[in-house]
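User: Second chain of the day. Same drill as before.
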Amino acid sequence: MSELPKIIQLKIRLLGISPMIWRRVLIPSATTLRELHGVLQVAMGWESIHLYQFDIRAVRYGSFELFAANPDVPLSDFAFSQNETFLYVYDMGDHWEHEVRIEAISDAAPKKSYPACIGGSRACPPEDCGGAPGYLDRRDEADGYDAWKDMGVMVDFLEDVVAADAPNRPVSDFMSDDVETAMERMMARKPFVEGNFSRGAVNKRFRAGDHRDLMRQQLW
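Assistant: Same format as last time:
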């Protein structure tokens, strides 16, 4: 009887942001670092449009443009111990730094597909928003005075539409430059106020093989 393959449970934490943005995934120990890059992109919600690197025991693996070591190395080669950590950095400009922790190593469950996401919290920041500092600034602005002022503009606009009592007139008749500008700013803030994370959506993407597509960088 053949031995069941080993499964590694990882907890990924995006550093520099509070409340914490994190994911917990299960992956085969035969997964290479290049494949893990794709898994992390799907799990976190990134788009794989930038360079990446893993920092493991003082060695850098990742994008060849960074002169890093070849990432086609399976995790099993490192013989990780429980609670050991390493870093995954995505986008050398915004420098999104993730702590990856080895939480457990166990036998694969029969008939279960891997990779699998078994936990997480909060949505990933948008790409190209200035890293953790830029994201926090935009998040604060999205709940600040200017945001509430724009909300007031929209409330006044809706009151004008209702007061006109003209169901046959298009809403665009009531639009003004101030209203359009407020709407544009509110739409731009949307990614910074939506904090939901869907484990089901991540696993659906895993089953569709999106992680295999994203392990190949989609550079602009």
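The helical segments are 33-44, 131-141, 145-164, 177-189, 199-207, 210-214.

User: Great, on to the next one.
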